[in-house]
Amino acid sequence: MARAFKVGLVQMAMGPDPRANLDQAAARVEEAAERGAEIVCLPELFRTPYFCQSETHAHFDLAEPVPGPSTERLGAVAKARKVAVVAPLFERRAPGLYHNSAAVLDGGGSLSGTYRKMHIPDDPCFFEKFYFTPGDLGFRTFDLPTGRIGVLICWDQWYPEAARLTALAGAELLFYPTAIGWHPSEKAEFGAAQRDAWRTIQRSHAIANGCYVAAVNRVGHERETPSDDGLEFWGTTFLCDPYGVVVAEASIDREEVLLAEVDPGRVEEARRHWPFLRDRRVDAYGGITQRFLD
């Protein structure tokens, strides 16, 4: 049976300078590796502030190719430290064609592959449909020395279908790099319930699929202009096991590098005792491919 290993989950606050954010990310990956992490995950769109708070054409200049400058820099760190890295990026695929993506770098610094965010939200201060084309690579898994992982991104985390299909492809650990927070005007009334729902849905993916789930969020109050309310990102980066037990969790408002252990034996145990995959009625699920059963 595969051995246990440590993951590093980087909870960052992003400043206006993409190069400085990349420098900070590289330093945090090195820190996690020094502390024993064999896989490190960064937050969604870690190179920039969360620019989707407005629809601004100039923000397209923040995108980069994959492979590109960020994968080159982080690949060098991955190779030097022998650590795999999940690097979520604003991908420039072609002129006028952009994705919210995550590059997976192996412990030799090579690009194992890319996941492109499948579910794209459009809400106040989360105007992602303006920037991102929905992913066209499907729900992917990546083989690393520690085992097979899956990567999904932020809004994907609310969809049980995404977690299930990735688990069915063999993933025993799901990473969800994220940028989620409160509208400050709503925080007092709805904030606690919103954050609890976010934690609950991801813990449910772990339970339903008998796998580990790692959610990696940013922190900080980001405004596009001084007069904006902006978004207050709620951190709470965490890892939960296949029973939904939170193994480790970061704070709401501080930058942290969270280290936690993943034990593949726990996956085997959970799936034996709670055999949800065995008992699925795959013959009866045809309707799931419909938008709505009218």
Structural write-up:
By secondary structure, the chain is α/β, with parallel strands linked by helices. It has a single domain, classed as Carbon-nitrogen hydrolase (Nitrilase/N-carbamoyl-D-aminoacid amidohydrolase). The protein has five helices and 15 strands. It has a six-stranded mixed β-sheet with strand order 5-4-3-2-1-15. The chain has a six-stranded mixed β-sheet with strand order 6-7-8-10-13-14, with helices on one face. Helix 1 runs parallel beside helix 2 and helix 3 runs parallel beside helix 4. The mean pLDDT is 97.
Q: Which radius of gyration do the C-alpha atoms yield?
A: 18 Å
Calculate the mean pLDDT score and round it. Answer: 97
Spell out the helices and strands N to C.
EHEHEEEEEHEEHEEEEEEH
Sheet with most strands: strand arrangement: 5-4-3-2-1-15
Taken as a percent bin, the fraction of beta residues is: 25-35%
- The separation of the N and C termini measures 47 Å
* Envelope shape: globular
E-strand count: 15
Largest sheet: 6 strands, mixed
CATH class: Alpha Beta
Which fold name is given in CATH as the topology?
Answer: Nitrilase/N-carbamoyl-D-aminoacid amidohydrolase
Instruction: State the helical fraction.
Output: 25-40%
CATH homolog superfamily: Carbon-nitrogen hydrolase
Number of domains: 1
Low-confidence region ranges: none
